C-alpha cells in the first residue's frame, strides 16, 4: 500500500471526529441549508491551504537543518494519535451527547476560513501527523504539498457529503448519541492501529 493511501486511511477517522470544523458546518446546515454548509466547507479548505504551504516549507527546512527535531515531531505525532484513540474509545462509555448550535453565519466562507486557520486539531494534524509520511530522502516540499492536498480533498468530499446528508435528515439540535458512540469507537480503533503501524516503521 502506498504512503499516500496509508496517510488517507490515518486522517479519515480524524476528519469524521467532531471538532470545530464539523460543528461549524453542521450549524450552518441547521441554521440555513446544505449550500451554507458547502460554502463553509470551501472556507475551511482555504484555511487549511495556508497550513499546507507553511508546513510543506517548514518541514523541509527542519529535515535538512534539525534531524533530531524532526524525529521528536515524529514521536509527538504518534503520542497524539494514541491520545486521540484513547479519548475516542473512552467517550464510548461516557453519557454526554454532542450539541450543535443552530446558527447561520452571514459569511460562512470567511468564518470557515478562520475556523480552520485557528483550529488546534487541524494544526496538530499538519505539524504532528503529516510529517510521519514524508520520506526524508526525497523531495520533502512536494511530498508535504501532495499529502496536504489529499487531506484537503478528503475534507471537501466528506464535509460536502455531510452537508447534503444532514440537510435531508430531520432538523435536530442533537446528534443521535448511539450512532456517535459507534463512530467514536471505530475512529479510536483505527487511530490506535495507525499509531502502532507508525511505531513499527
Mean pLDDT: 76
Tell me the β content: under 5%
Please give the largest β-sheet: none
Q: Tell me the series of helices and strands, N- to C-terminal.
A: HHHHHHHH
Question: What are the SSEs and their pairings?
Answer:
Blueprint: H1 3-16, H2 20-31, H3 34-65, H4 67-92, H5 108-117, H6 120-129, H7 140-168, H8 177-200
How would you characterize the overall build of this protein?
The structure is a single chain. The chain has 201 residues and is mainly alpha-helical. It has one domain (3-200). The protein is built from eight helices and no strands. The protein has helices at residues 3-16, 20-31, 34-65, 67-92, 108-117, 120-129, 140-168, 177-200. The longest helix has 32 residues, at 34-65. The protein is globular. The mean pLDDT is 76.
